[in-house]
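Listing S7. Sequence submitted for prediction.
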Amino acid sequence: MERNGRNYIFELKMCDSADELEGKAELALRQIDEKRYGAELDRGKPLWKVGIAFFDKQCRVKCEIPYISYPFFL
């Protein structure tokens, strides 16, 4: 998904218990890298990776947000 000059990749995982939330959110982030999701997106825009795990009404969200250097003007 592209929005506001950034690319976003979301990976969602369903859990069998609340105890799995943390691990599955991490797994979702790893899967984005391992399967190279977003490889075809514009490299000139930062890629925000978001792993979401959910169980019933609970969820855990893990993000990898790139460092963006903005010019600093005095």
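Caption to Listing S7: primary sequence and predicted structure tokens for the chain studied. The longest helix spans residues 21-34. The chain is about 20% helix and 35% strand.
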